[in-house]
């Protein structure tokens, strides 16, 4: 995974000061000066005192990519059993995948089970059953474009720490010394944990496919086959947002929860009559 180059605190504070000074002067070049104090400026053009007097107090700052990304282990297990007799054959397989995502709190877990049984009832009649089901539990953030956790987090200012002195996430905590930066509405913090740890999500999907068929040899050249297949799919997404999201989001939002479910069932029945006959070096084959 390739990380984006980020601006850290000293660069960020110098950039912030230059942008605000230039914008303030451009607002009224005949009157405004870059040296004007905050009390002479409107709120949009004010600069935190620490940015000009002591930007070094912020240290290197926070690398928000390092905060939200992690090493992602993966576990994979498979089991397969097959066997049978002259008349009956079977196969059973199971596969499990547990993949942690590089994005905090994201994961993908999948369990797949498949089985098939074939039984020769007589010399003329054979039946077969195939059954497969897949269950997936996952959480996948960071795919919604400009409003997702990844794109928002890398826009966060590096001056803010991962946790404030109260153990909360951000400067919207009213009891934090960082709360004074609320006065500067162009300092941004979309703490990644406010979206991954203070919004609980889980997507669950189940997909089952079954096929059963019987085949009867009427003669050595004429065969009848009847089959029925069914596919059942169910998906459920649950989400719950904790009030204020640990104070680490750009606004203070109330608690909210929602669930979304969908079901889909398809079935197909087929009956086929097949004639297949060889006449010396020639053959005739027909199905209906």
Task: Write structural notes for this entry.
Helices cover about 15% and strands about 40% of the residues. The chain has five helices and eight strands, in the order αααββββααββββ. The two termini are about 55 Å apart. The model has no long low-confidence stretch (mean pLDDT about 90).
Name the features:
mainly beta, elongated, 14% helix, 2 domains, eight-stranded antiparallel β-sheet, 288 residues, 8 strands, 5 helices, single chain
| Assembly form of the protein | single chain
Give a quick account of the main beta sheet: strands, pairing sense, barrel closure. 8 strands, antiparallel
Radius of gyration: 32 Å
Distance linking N and C termini: 54 Å
Element string (H = helix, E = strand): HHHEEEEHHEEEE
Beta-strand residue percentage: 35-45%
Query: Poorly predicted ranges (pLDDT <50, ≥5 residues)?
Result: none
Break the fold down into its secondary structure elements and pairings.
Blueprint: H1 9-27, H2 49-53, H3 64-68, E1 74-84, E2 88-100, E3 107-120, E4 125-139, H4 149-153, H5 192-196, E5 199-217, E6 222-241, E7 256-279, E8 282-287
Antiparallel strand pairs: 1-2, 2-3, 3-4, 4-5, 5-6, 6-7, 7-8
Brief write-up:
Helix content is 14%, strand content 42%. It has helices at residues 9-27, 49-53, 64-68, 149-153, 192-196, and strands spanning 74-84, 88-100, 107-120, 125-139, 199-217, 222-241, 256-279, 282-287. A hairpin with a 4-residue loop joins strand 3 and strand 4 (125-139).
């Amino acid at each position: 995974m390739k990380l984006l180059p980020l601006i850290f605190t000293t660069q960020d504070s110098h950039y912030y000061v230059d942008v605000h000074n230039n914008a303030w002067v451009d607002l009224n070049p005949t009157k405004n000066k870059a040296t004007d104090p905050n009390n002479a400026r409107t709120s949009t053009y004010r600069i935190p005192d620490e940015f000009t007097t002591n930007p070094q107090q912020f240290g290197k700052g926070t690398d928000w990519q390092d905060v939200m990304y992690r090493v992602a282990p993966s576990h994979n297990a498979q089991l397969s059993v097959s066997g049978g007799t002259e008349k009956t054959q079977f196969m059973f397989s199971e596969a499990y995948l547990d993949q942690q995502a590089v994005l905090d709190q994201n994961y993908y877990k999948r369990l797949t089970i498949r089985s098939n049984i074939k039984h020769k009832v007589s010399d003329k009649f054979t039946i077969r059953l195939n059954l497969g089901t897949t269950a997936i539990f996952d959480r996948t953030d960071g795919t919604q474009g400009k409003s997702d956790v990844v794109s928002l987090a890398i826009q966060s200012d590096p001056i803010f720490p991962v946790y404030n002195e109260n153990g909360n996430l951000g400067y919207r905590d009213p009891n934090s010394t960082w709360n004074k930066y609320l006065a500067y509405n162009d300092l941004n913090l979309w703490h990644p944990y406010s979206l991954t740890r203070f919004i609980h999500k889980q997507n669950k999907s189940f997909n089952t496919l079954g096929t059963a068929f019987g085949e009867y040899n009427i003669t050595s050249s004429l065969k009848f086959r009847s089959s029925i297949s069914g596919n059942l799919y169910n998906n459920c997404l649950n989400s719950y947002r904790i009030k204020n999201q640990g104070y680490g989001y750009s606004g203070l939002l109330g608690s909210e929860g929602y669930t979304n479910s969908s079901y889909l069932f398809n079935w197909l029945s087929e009956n086929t009559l097949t004639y297949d006959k060889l006449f010396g070096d020639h053959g005739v084959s027909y199905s209906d």
